[in-house]
Amino acid sequence: MQGKTFFIDLTKCTACRGCQVACKQWKKLPAEETKNWGSFQNPKDLSFNTLKLVRFSEVEENGEFKHWFFFPDQCRHCVHPPCKMVGDMYDDTAILHDPETGAILFTERTRDLDGEEIRTSCPYDIPRWDDTKVQAKCDMCLDRVQNGLLPACVLSCPTGTMHFGDREEMLELAKKRLAEVRAYRPKAVLVDPEDTRVVYLCEETPRKYHGYAMAEADVPGTLSRKRVLAAVASPVRHLFG
Ligand code: SF4
Ligand code: SF4
User: Fold this and answer.
1) pLDDT band at 233; cut points 50, 70, 90
2) pLDDT of res. 208
3) Chain centroid to CA 206: how far?
4) Residue of 240 and 50 predicted with greater confidence
5) What is the pLDDT of residues 199-230, one digit of tens each?
6) Are 191 and 199 spatial neighbours (Cβ–Cβ below 8 Å)?
7) Which atom of ligand 1 is nearest to the CA of 106?
């Protein structure tokens, strides 16, 4: 299973949002009208037109600001993608799995799938859709990668947070950085490194960054990693029975 993988070292992210803007620019996606909702996170959520979003999680203690956790959120390009497993039950050409890179791709045929069902299947709450019901998410900048270029978000990152390359090389880098960070942040973890192609290094428990930062076994209505692995091993395709 080599393929490609992102390594996102959150210890270095300054929330400059270069990656978020670069994604919009490369994909020619329109800006969104936003308003102040009490957070620097802007826009408020992922959407059909915002495939990459830098999330801001503000930590307060005794009513005073203490710390921010920044989380550049995107599709994780799961190794065994639950979205595709569910989509394939209706149309196995709606969501594709690129064999070379491992990228998971939503096609226009996703308009005939149930968006809520696909979104609910995603352990990371990624898929979104527009008025036509076509679903959208990060496609790994496959057009760039197939031409030897980095994904636009990775190229734009000025701090060394975002890395992209061959999977084994990225996993090695992630493990090396984890060992370094653990020397001063003992709770540091890599998020779901065996199951995804977007591996985050968090200084603290991932849920402090974002509620859907990691796949959770007990989130009602979602497909846990345990259930994904069971479904992969089983011919029975009723994942939410
Ligand atoms: S993160 Fe969600 S949308 Fe992306 S491949 Fe995994 S299940 Fe599919
Ligand atoms: S470009 Fe890099 S430093 Fe800036 S928000 Fe994105 S990941 Fe963080």
Assistant:
1) very low
2) 94
3) 13
4) 50
5) 999 999 999 999 999 997 644 444 554 455 45
6) yes
7) 3
14, two tokens: 């300054």
d(CA 123, CA 150): 26
Q: How far is the CA of 63 from the centre of ligand 2 (A)?
A: 28
pLDDT (tens digit per residue) in 34-80: 999 989 999 999 999 999 999 999 988 888 989 999 999 999 999 99
Q: Are 10 and 177 in contact (CB under 8 A)?
A: no
Please report which ligand is nearest the Cα atom of 155: 2
Residue nearest to atom 3 of ligand 2 (CA): 13
Q: Which two tokens stand for residue 182?
A: 């653990």
Q: What separation in Å is there between the alpha carbon of 119 and the centre of ligand 1?
A: 9
Dihedrals phi, psi of 237, to nearest 5 degrees: -110, 15
The residue among 198, 194, 241, 239 whose CA lies nearest residue 87 is 239
- Is omega for the bond preceding 43 within 30 degrees of 0, making it cis? yes
How many whole angstroms from 125 Cα to the centroid of ligand 1? 8
Chain centroid to CA 162: how far? 13
Residue whose pair of structure tokens reads 């200084």 in the numeric block: 203
Contact 75 CB / ligand 1 (< 6 Å): yes
Quote the pLDDT of residue 227.
Answer: 53
Candidate of 6, 8, 17, 19 to mutate for ligand 2, largest count of ligand atoms within 8 Å of Cβ? 19
What token pair was written down for 197? 């192609």
User: What is the number of the ligand 2 atom nearest to the C-alpha of 156?
Assistant: 1
